[in-house]
Write a structure and sequence with these properties.
Elements: H1 3-27, H2 30-53, H3 59-86, H4 92-108, H5 124-138, H6 142-167, H7 173-182, H8 184-188, H9 196-215, H10 223-236, H11 238-257, H12 265-297, H13 310-321, H14 339-347, H15 358-376, H16 378-387, H17 392-408, H18 414-421, H19 425-430, H20 452-465
Helix pairs in contact: 2-3, 2-6, 3-6, 3-7, 4-5, 6-7, 6-9, 9-10, 10-11, 11-12, 11-17, 14-17, 15-16
Length: about 475
């Protein structure tokens, strides 16, 4: 395309946008046309940042994620339509919206100061205040709010993409990027005003920090993203933050004992000492988060149910979720031997034979596609078993989705489970994108990629991560 043609296209697009915006202001409610104000801002800013974040050999990933941006906006619009048209507004996002409108109105008319919008509390209370803070900048448009929260989830996924590119030599980066932008759970569920979108952002930032912790020269720089991401996530769902903190602890252990790389004895000693020093505060942080989690998950006294152990809390979670529609019988957690099965079975629910209704059929189709992807990529799945004991980030990813599957096994409602699974879907999609590694031999004690293509990608990714 020539320069003149490009200029004409830009001018024509701008004029069409202004015409659409003018028509929308006169014919649609602010709940709808407000989104037309924020979408171009989010889109242009994201494209610029993406091309800086994924430069050089990773530039194809930036192009894929740019397409994913349009797909994400479509997912947010679909989520809005289902919530407010198909369900008549009977969704949590509607409650958050009206609470935020009320709080922001008090600030705009001078009844309260802007500082009153600073979020407080944990869980729903925090998210209500956080939504009000977002509305103070974007206005009170429902669809604009959906687009804003969808952008949070989008950037959480982008950070996970960057983390994997840094931490896993030989990663099938373009395949992973396409999976992240087209899988329905990631397009649809974390695309509305609610807890899933900011949780995805927090977990994505923490994952990026975990990758930097093990794969950059200044690994200490990974601590800040971890604290920032998991701290933010803990304010929304502390039990989920505790799970991902536990996954980081597992990766620290692998970093101390499992990594095999050429180094002098003194270098290895310093590296292991550093990992031990990181593991100590990680254990403390996990203990604190676990304590907050217990208090957060403990049922209110008004329910007439008291809990004194994790098992009782999980039983109470089952009791509450089974009261809604789309309920099922979750696997038992009484015997630790059954925990791996319970985790895997939870993450692969529902199967097509378990689906009841159109919505569940869509979810079952995605689960079937994921299982088929694992079957077709069986050599990469087998490689995950080798990488999990040598690559800290792979250990982190596997620990995150297995521990999450174990925690979600107490859910007895498919709708709740589908939303929660979207948070670990990026880690589930990572496994079919891992490099195929050879068995260790006596001549070469290290596990290496099998193909020259993977070796080339390794060099590219390492160059991009420095």
């Amino acid at each position: 395309m020539t320069v003149r043609a490009s200029e004409a296209l830009i001018v024509g697009t701008g004029m069409a946008y202004l015409a659409l915006l003018g028509w929308s202001v006169g014919n649609l409610s602010f709940d709808i046309w407000g989104a037309l104000v924020v979408i171009p801002i989010y889109g242009l800013a994201s494209i610029v940042i993406l091309h800086r974040m994924f430069s050089g050999p990773l530039s194809p990933v930036a192009k894929i994620l740019s397409w994913g941006l349009a797909i994400k906006f479509f997912g947010a619009a679909a989520r809005y339509w289902v919530g407010f048209d198909a369900y008549g507004g009977a969704i949590d996002a509607n409650r958050y919206h009206y609470y935020a409108i009320h709080r922001v109105s008090d600030v705009w008319d001078g009844t309260e100061s802007f500082g009153a919008l600073v979020p407080t509390g944990i869980g729903t209370e925090f998210l209500e205040d956080f939504t009000a803070l977002v509305y103070a900048f974007t206005g009170g448009s429902k669809l604009a709010g959906f687009m804003t929260f969808a952008m949070m989830a989008y950037w959480g996924v982008a950070f996970m993409m960057k983390a994997a590119a840094i931490a896993i030599p030989g990663l099938m980066a373009r395949r992973y990027a396409w999976f992240l932008v087209v899988f329905p759970s990631l397009v649809y569920w974390p695309s509305s005003i609610g807890k899933e979108a900011p949780m995805m952002l927090g977990l994505g930032v923490a994952s990026y920090g975990a990758a930097r912790l093990f794969n950059t020269r200044r690994s200490i720089t990974g601590l800040f993203p971890i604290v920032l991401g998991l701290g933010f996530a803990a304010l929304i769902r502390p039990h989920i933050a505790a799970i991902w903190m536990a996954a980081i602890m597992v990766s620290l252990v692998v970093g101390v004992f499992g990594r095999r790389q050429p180094a002098t004895h003194s270098t290895k000693a310093r590296s292991r000492l550093g990992m031990f020093l990181l593991l100590a505060p990680a254990v403390i942080a996990f203990s604190i988060t676990a304590g907050v989690t217990i208090r957060y998950l403990e049922p209110d006294s008004g329910d007439g149910v008291e809990t004194s152990s994790i098992t009782q809390i999980l039983d109470e979670t089952t009791r509450r979720t089974v009261q809604a529609g789309s309920s099922f019988s979750p696997p038992s957690l009484g015997n630790p031997i059954t925990w791996p099965y319970a985790a895997v079975r939870t993450l692969t629910r529902p199967l097509p034979i378990e689906a009841r209704g159109i919505a569940q059929l869509f979810t079952a189709a995605e689960v079937t596609a994921l299982l088929a992807l694992y079957a077709l990529s069986w050599r990469r799945v087998v490689s995950a078993g080798r990488l999990v004991i040598s690559n800290p980030y792979v250990a982190y990813a596997v620990s995150a989705f297995m521990l999450s599957g174990l925690a979600y096994s107490s859910f007895a409602n498919l709708g709740v489970l589908a939303r929660q699974k979207s948070l670990v879907m990026p880690m589930l999609l990572l496994i079919p994108c891992l490099p195929i590694v050879a068995r260790r031999s006596r001549d070469d004690p290290k596990t290496l990629p099998m193909s020259e293509r993977h070796a080339s990608e390794t060099q590219h990714v390492q160059t991009a991560s420095q």
